[in-house]
Amino acid sequence: MKTKIYEIQINGEKEWVCADTAIEALKAYSSITDITLTDFENDDDIVEVPKEKWAEMKILNIDESEEDLSVETTFAEYMEKEATSADIIATTNY
């Protein structure tokens, strides 16, 4: 199971990645999105999300045919049950 969540801030959007280290998070993000380190701007960032905030942060199920956003799970629940490999778990870019 992965142990941390990192918020990657790039081009005004946020992506949350579960991984054990910031390097692992960036490598997973890069392999999934084809974005490389040279694509990041100086004002982009990566920060670890404190575990204390996981229960407050929600992963939404977004159905493009509906305007409704339904809560699928919290970050805490995802990390407990689903975080077996480094992966993007949520995004503001939809």
Overall description:
This protein is α+β, with helices and mostly antiparallel strands. It has 2 helices and 6 strands, in the order ββαβββαβ. The chain has a 4-stranded antiparallel beta sheet, with helices on both faces. It has a two-stranded antiparallel ribbon with strand order 4-5. The relative contact order is 0.28.
Features:
6 strands, alpha+beta, 4-stranded antiparallel sheet, 94 residues
What would you say about this model in short?
With 94 residues, this protein is of the alpha+beta class. The protein has one domain.
Write the H/E string, N to C. EEHEEEHE
The number of distinct structural domains comes to: 1
Proportion of residues in helical segments: 10-25%
Report the end-to-end length measured between terminal Cα atoms. Answer: 26 Å
Mean pLDDT: 92
Class based on secondary structure composition and strand pairing: alpha+beta
As residue ranges, the low-confidence spans are: none
- The 3D shape can be described as globular
What is the element layout, followed by pairings?
Elements: E1 4-10, E2 13-19, H1 22-33, E3 45-48, E4 58-62, E5 69-74, H2 75-81, E6 87-91
